[in-house]
Amino acid sequence: MKTGPVDQRTSKVIGVASVFLDNSFNTTAFRGMHRAARARGYELLLIYATPRRVLERRVALRHVAGWIAMYNTDGLEELLSDGKPGVIFCAPPLGTRCPVVRAENHDSIHLLVDHLIRLGHRRIAYIGMTGSDDFHERSRVFDQALRARGIEADLNLLSEFHECAILYTEQRFHQLLERNGKFCTALVAGNDEMAIGAINAIRAHGYRVPEDIAVVGFDDINAAQHCDPPLTTVRQDPALLGSMAVERLIDLLDGLPPRELVTRGPAELVVRRSCGSGCAAWNTAPVAPAIEAPEGDWQRVLSRQMSLLMDGWELPLSDDAPLGWPEAEVIAQGLGAALAGEEPLDVETLQRAFAAGVTRNDKIEVLLAVVKLVEQTAARRLAVAPGPEAARRLETFLDRVRLSQQRALAAWERRNVKSLERLVRAKVHMSRLLASKHAWTQERLEWLAQTSIGVGCIALWADASGSSEPEFVVHSVYPYDTDLTTLVGQRYPAGDFPPPALRAAALPDEPGGYLLLVPLVSARRDWGTLVLGGLHLESFVGNLHPLAMWVSLLIAAFEHHDMEATLQAERDMLAAAYERERALASTVRELGCPVIPLLPGVLLISLIGAIDAARAQQILEAALSGVAREGARWVLLDVTGVPFVDEATAAALVQTAQATRLLGARVSLVGVGPGMAQGMVGLGIELRDISIFQSLAAAISDLTRPEKKRKARRPE
Questions:
Q1: Counting CB atoms within 10 angstroms of each CB, which of 95, 114, 374, 482 has the fewest?
Q2: pLDDT tens digit sequence for 427-446
Q3: Cβ atoms of 250 and 40 closer than 8 Å
Q4: What is the pLDDT of residues 479-522, one digit of tens each?
Q5: Is the peptide bond before 498 cis (omega within 30 degrees of 0)?
């Protein structure tokens, strides 16, 4: 399937298809992708879908120059069938065309297993998510590592876990403890979120961590340093993996061959208290890289060392590489000023510098390592230029550095708390949206005002009639008081969506300045797409999965209001049917009971519709009036148009026959079919003194027979 022409030399959009979005690892990876893309003049466009689903929906296909497939490669070959290049992120190779960037799973798991064995553990378990190849690879290496060290690998519980979220793992691990008791003394979790969930379950079950069960994780997400106890884990750099994936893709766009088929990011063991307080070699603080430079450039060297510490492995060590944390120069220059006899920098200036660094890396041990590096550099420089005044100024400067670092970190944590508060408010607004018909019809994205998101859009599938390609129609945009409102009502072919105005509004110079496209799909229907920009400007701690919550509530709102619309349509249809029935009944009543002189002395009364009390009275009056007027001897009641005869109907007919008999006439029923006759027998209805004919022809034939024969047929 061709996706439309894309000039890869001029298109500057990198598409990312991912089946996972809303956790700390992916947030950091996307940030690294965005930085690398912006550095090379590209935009980032994230789509929450598999490559196959991207191709089926055809969204953004004409925008994208090349694709990064994260965690899932289903349909990737078809997506790249038009010649676009692709890179695979944290998934197995797919031939040799697409280079792969993934975590260092082999040596890392060996490090964790070796560490636990040195602590005396022999009953070691592994948990991971069954649906992820990274977890499967770590599972295989775990088995190999144990067997290589002569330990039975009988506690690999990969098949027991189908999600990797904290709450799910906590519930599932609690079930395992309920069933098996303390079945292990140490646990290797496939990622930090699963490790934190397991710690919660272990402690809730009455066991201690690490005294009863030691726990180690993988990734070193932000929450790993804050959980109780702090988590021993393998630190890798998701931002580096993301930037490497973008660099590999841009190399392919530039016509450069892949450097290697599989590139693995570096990793290191970070030992904290979750594996045992007796560990003598806690190595949580990274070591500043050594940089060679002339003696007079010590401030420049210090700036680069601090920046490299903050960015981990992301930046190269070359002298001409830009600083990832340019504000580090403020701290280095402030140290130089203090040594030169100038007044030390004020706390506010230093705090702004550290605040910029914390947005790049909020690991406590990394921030402490930065402060330690400044202290060590200050001690060396003071040894070169000793003096009491210099020492005093230097001590004042270092005190302000320590205070600024702590204040910046505290401000960052407060910002995270405010993010959570906004999430709660957003959920409340979404809940109100479900219940408020007015809010739904007016401003479907009003809840975004309670979040840190800068740009929002809901685009629904348009009527496909007369179009060669599926189209979106923009239904809602956010913010409302911007030029984006001109997009509302506009139609765009799927391959050309999102429009340039939305991409430009995503603030491309911000950390979360990319656009994210999330399909709004339920089991019943594919509604369209939610577009968000600036989603990851803040860190969402606690693995709350805000995006999944928002999308679920939004889809629920669509389903709710669609169901209401369907019910209203059904109510309108029933009301219309009722009105038609009333009109028909009124017509029947207006028609009344026409009395037709059929033969001399014979009247025919045709009955139509159900016979209620009012109709019964009408029939009686019509029959008596007709007999008196025409001097009739016989009344034929034609019930062909009566849908059924029940006891009430039969009583009305008997009453009519009895009253008519008093005037000297008899009554016969005409048009009684087999079904009506069977129903009357089933109800035990006896129509005394009423003769019955199957058809009007049969009645006329009987009435026109010679008198003797007719008398013989009359009921007594």
A1: 95
A2: 777 777 666 665 566 677 87
A3: yes
A4: 877 888 899 999 999 999 999 989 888 876 666 688 999 999 98
A5: yes
What value does the mean pLDDT of the chain take? 84
Residue among 243, 400, 405 nearest 314 (CA): 243
- How far apart CA 567 and CA 510 sit, in angstroms, is 45
Residue 351's nearest CA partner among 372, 330, 333, 369 is: 330
CA atoms within 13 A on the CB side of 201: 23
Residue ranges of alpha helices (H) inside 545-646 are 546-591, 613-630
Instruction: Report which secondary-structure segment, H or E, holds 697.
Output: helix 696-703
CA torsion, ordered 352, 357, 362, 365, to nearest 10 deg: -110
**7-16 burial, b for 16+ CB within 10 Å, e for fewer?**
ebeebebbbb
* Beta-bridge partner residues of 605: 595, 637
Work out the average pLDDT over 579-598.
Answer: 75
- SS3 per-residue string spanning 475-504: EEEECCCCHHHHHCCCEEEHHHCCCHHHHH
**Residue 590 pLDDT:** 59
Q: How many whole angstroms separate alpha carbon 187 and alpha carbon 216?
A: 6
Query: Tens of pLDDT along 384-430?
Result: 766 677 888 889 999 999 999 999 999 988 887 777 777 777 777 77
Per-residue pLDDT, 422? 74
- Range among 108-112, 595-599, 660-664 rated most confident: 108-112
- Judging by beta carbons within 10 Å of its beta carbon (0-12, 13-18, 19+), is residue 420 exposed, middle or buried? middle
Give the span between the Cα atoms of 654 and 509, in whole angstroms.
Answer: 92
**Cα–Cα dist 488/499, whole Å:** 12
d(CA 225, CA 229): 8
Here the tokens at position 653 are: 């007919």
CA nearest 264: which of 84, 88, 83?
88
Local structure of 548: helix, strand or coil: helix
Task: Please give the order of strands across the beta sheet that includes 602-608.
Answer: 595-599, 602-608, 634-641, 666-670, 690-693
Which residue did the predictor score with more confidence, 700 or 138?
A: 138
User: Rounded to an integer, what distance in angstroms lies between the CA atom of residue 531 and that of residue 515?
Assistant: 7
Q: Give the angle 542-552-515 at the CA atoms, nearest 5°.
A: 75
* pLDDT band, residue 544 (cuts 50/70/90): very low
